[in-house]
Structures are given as C-alpha cells and as structure tokens.
Amino acid sequence: MYKIGEFSILSKTTIKALRYYEKEKLLIPHYIDAETGYRYYETNQLIDVAKIISLKQTGLSINEIKEVFNGKNYIDILKSRKKEIENQLDKYNNQLTKINYLLEGKNMDYEVIFKELPDYTIYYKEGRLKKIEDIVDFILGSAEECKALNPDIKCITPDYCYVNYLDKEFKEENLLIRYAQAVEEAGISNENIKFEKLKPVNAACIYCKGPYTNLPNAYSFILKFLEENNYEIIDCPRERYINGMWNKETEEEWLTEIQFPIRKK
What we know:
Elements: E1 2-3, H1 4-11, H2 15-23, E2 31-32, E3 39-41, H3 45-57, H4 62-69, H5 74-103, E4 113-117, E5 121-131, H6 135-149, E6 161-165, E7 173-183, E8 194-197, E9 201-209, H7 215-228, E10 231-233, E11 238-243, E12 255-264
Antiparallel strand pairs: 1-3, 2-3, 4-9, 5-7, 5-8, 6-7, 6-11, 9-12, 10-12, 11-12
C-alpha cells in the first residue's frame, strides 16, 4: 500500500484532488490509520483514478462521474455530453462566421442572427392570391375564420405570426401562401383552418425596417450570407410581421423579420 503522498506521485494527481475525491466518495482510501489519520491506497486504485481523470477530461461533472461509478450506463452520459459539445461548437462556429463576416467589411445595413425557433402551436390557412397586395385581407380573413370556429382562442404573448410563400418560384400574381399564427393551444379545425405543433428549429434571421418594397434586398443579403457560409435551407422561410399598418402610422416604422430554418452543410 502507498501513503497519500506516494500515491499522488504514482497517479500524477495532487493530494488536494485525492482528498476531494474522498470527500465526494469517488475514491475512498483502502485503509485509514485510526491513530495517525494517514491514508493508504492500493495499486489497483490507480485504475480508478485514471478513470476519474479520463471522464473529467470529457467535461463531465463530479456528479455525473459519481453516477458512472454508481453503475449508471456511461454510454448514455457520454452521448449527452457529446450533444452538449456539438451544440457549443455550433454556437462558436456561428459566432466565428459572424465575426469574420463583419471583419471583412460586409454590408452593415443588415445583421444576420442565429436563434432557435420554439415549438409553437399554430393555426394556419393556405390560399392562392391574385396579387401580393391581397395578403392583408387574407391574413385578416384567416383570423376572423379561426375566431369564428374558436371564440376563446388566444394568441401567445409576445405575438408570433408569419407567412410562407409556397410556390417553387417567385410570383407577383397568383401566388400560393400560408399564413400562420401562434396560439396558446390547438382548437377546432375545418377545411381551411388547420392546427399544427411546430418542432423547434435553428434559424438564421434578419430584420427589415420600412416598407415591404425593402424586403427583396433583405432576402438577397441573407441568401448570399447563407451560401457563402455553407448553410443549407431546410424549410420554407418565415416572413414574420412585428410592426405594420395595424400598429404604426408610417411605413418607415414597419418591422419584418425573415427567418430561414437552416443547418450547416
């Protein structure tokens, strides 16, 4: 057997760390002298120390390491830690992409931000419009129809509504759209009004201030950004209306957010 100092040298672990592992009941000395309080360790405990160090180097917490030593399937714990690291890498890669883009002196009129869109419950209605100017009437009509079916329906706070353009190409006339509004809970559907639970999704987003005639420039900017930085668009972009004619007096005060569900190629 080895005294704690000798075992510290053999295991390349500080005495302070060994005492901490003992306190956390991760590594109990094989024998403690009742009179002197000296701690003694056996050679086979070197394997336990090595396992502790190895798991610490993966970023597991002491409590998670204790779970492993207490018999929990360490594969599940490591898979969970792997997912955490992958999420952190995605976060840092997004930050690095943004920093590089700004350092290169790109257009500062728009700012691309990354966020996770939550698992909203929405009602939606799809329809074909003769011209884009009909979109306001379509939105208001959708809300009235849903309210007639579901008098007690409540929109979430803060409000979240958006439009998807469903045609395979850009159209100024005879365009197919979907209007969606997030609500507190699903209600009654009919042939027009449908309810759906959206899955969380990562999105690249950009804000566009002013009239809707500014939107094409914002779309061009974010699409170029995604292409240059190897992002893949995985679903229809959402054109989210934050401020508009319903609550602002001038077009210059309108605010629209374009949200592109994405993943790294």
